[in-house]
């Protein structure tokens, strides 16, 4: 009798326990499903994914939960489609919502089918495929542009970025090889000119910009070295400069007993690519004008030393170089101050460059500045260049 009562008690306890366990799983199922639906409704896909994963751990109602959640996803997909076609959400927002649904790792076929009909996705896939084709043809610039046009939301984007780097390396390689040849021949200005013509195709490329900075530094070092070597020769032209080499500026100009045969003194700083015009007399000079200029490139450097203004004319033309200049002021032989270069028609500018070495040895100024120098700095005026 006692054993029978014990069995009844155990059976009752087990029944109660089973009821509790089943009730828990039913409650968990209902709670997760409601929360899943709520999260999807608010586009909170991360929390929805968490709820979905919890729901699939329900050993009793797992299949039921998956079936119910798929119905909710289908309903959400239909909602997204309607909002997209009615124009209530953008294409980008549509893709983001679809990616959110795909992150739930449920049945994806319907979601993918709709996603692949979107122009953003379709066009990106087409661009990616054409990019691959152009890459195979070794048409790296066109391939690069196609890979760049792949949208950030496209599944191809990660691969496209890798292929972009491949294209960039292929485009850079011959450019950098050519630049290195210019460097080995100490043709830094030509290297910069060439690199600038190539940078247009890769305007934001940090490696090409880094190479350009290197060229600028090498050019500056070359100019300073050129000046130093000429000063060190201590010729009649350069010996007077030794006392104030690298020391001459507005604050020190009156410390070196510098004279001029007129009331103007001109100082050209090659490293700075600046022309400074002082007015006054010995130890009483005042800076009057500062002009941005361009001196000679490597191999055609502007001479260094002390000179005097010898002659002037309103125009010259060089058949050798196919260009001329306005308002020239001569300071030694064929070396002149003059305007930026023009074609023979005296109207078409051949090269507007100022502020960096660009000439065949002359000192280029803007038209306005060369006109001022032509009008005001008379023959006999001292010119200091280094």
Automatic annotation (TrEMBL):
Domain L,D-TPase catalytic: from-to ranges: 264-386
Known pathway: Cell wall biogenesis; peptidoglycan biosynthesis
Keywords: Cell shape, Cell wall biogenesis/degradation, Membrane, Peptidoglycan synthesis, Transferase, Transmembrane, Transmembrane helix
Gene Ontology process terms (BP): cell wall organization; peptidoglycan-protein cross-linking; regulation of cell shape
UniProt GO MF annotations: peptidoglycan L,D-transpeptidase activity; transferase activity
Pfam family membership, one: YkuD
Record: active site: 338 (proton donor/acceptor), 362 (nucleophile)
InterPro entries, alphabetized: LD-transpeptidase, LD_TPept_cat_dom, Transpep_catalytic_dom
PROSITE patterns: LD_TPASE (PS52029)
SUPFAM superfamilies (UniProt xref): L,D-transpeptidase catalytic domain-like
Transmembrane segments: 6-27
Top-rank taxon: Bacteria
One GO CC term on file: extracellular region
PANTHER family, per the entry: L,D-TRANSPEPTIDASE, L,D-TRANSPEPTIDASE YCIB-RELATED
Record's protein name: L,D-transpeptidase family protein
Source organism per UniProt: Clostridium perfringens
């Amino acid at each position: 009798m006692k054993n029978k009562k014990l069995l009844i008690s155990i059976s009752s306890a087990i029944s109660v326990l089973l009821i509790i366990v089943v009730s828990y799983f039913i409650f968990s199922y209902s709670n997760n499903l409601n929360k899943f639906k709520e999260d999807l409704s608010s586009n909170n896909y991360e929390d929805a994914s968490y709820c979905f994963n919890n729901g699939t751990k329900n050993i009793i109602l797992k299949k039921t939960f998956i079936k119910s959640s798929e119905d909710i996803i289908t309903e959400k997909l239909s909602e997204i489609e309607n909002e997209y076609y009615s124009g209530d959400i953008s294409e980008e927002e549509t893709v983001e919502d679809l990616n959110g649904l795909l992150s739930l790792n449920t049945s994806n076929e319907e979601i993918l089918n709709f996603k692949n009909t979107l122009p953003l996705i379709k066009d990106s896939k087409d661009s990616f495929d054409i990019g691959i084709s152009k890459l195979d043809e070794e048409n790296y610039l066109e391939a690069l542009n196609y890979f760049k046009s792949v949208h950030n939301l496209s599944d191809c984007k990660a691969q496209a970025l890798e292929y972009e780097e491949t294209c960039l390396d292929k485009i850079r390689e011959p450019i950098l090889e050519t630049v290195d040849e210019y460097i080995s021949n100490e043709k830094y200005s030509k290297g910069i000119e060439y690199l600038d013509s190539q940078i247009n195709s890769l305007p934001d490329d940090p490696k090409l910009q880094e190479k350009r900075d290197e060229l600028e530094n090498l050019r500056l070092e070359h100019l300073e070295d050129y000046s130093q070597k000429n000063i060190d020769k201590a010729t009649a032209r350069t010996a007077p400069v030794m006392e104030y080499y690298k020391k001459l500026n507005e604050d020190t100009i009156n410390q070196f007993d510098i004279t001029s045969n007129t009331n103007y003194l001109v100082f050209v700083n090659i490293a700075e690519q600046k022309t400074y015009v002082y007015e006054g007399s010995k130890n009483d000079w005042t800076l009057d004008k500062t002009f941005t200029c361009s001196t000679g490139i490597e191999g055609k450097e502007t001479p260094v030393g002390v000179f005097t203004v010898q002659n002037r004319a309103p125009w010259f033309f060089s058949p050798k170089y196919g260009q001329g200049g306005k308002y020239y002021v001569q300071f030694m032989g064929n070396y002149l101050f003059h305007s930026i270069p023009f074609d023979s028609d005296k109207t078409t500018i051949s090269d507007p460059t100022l502020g960096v070495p660009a000439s065949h040895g002359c000192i280029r100024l803007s038209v306005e500045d060369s006109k001022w120098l032509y009008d005001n700095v008379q023959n006999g005026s001292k010119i200091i260049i280094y």
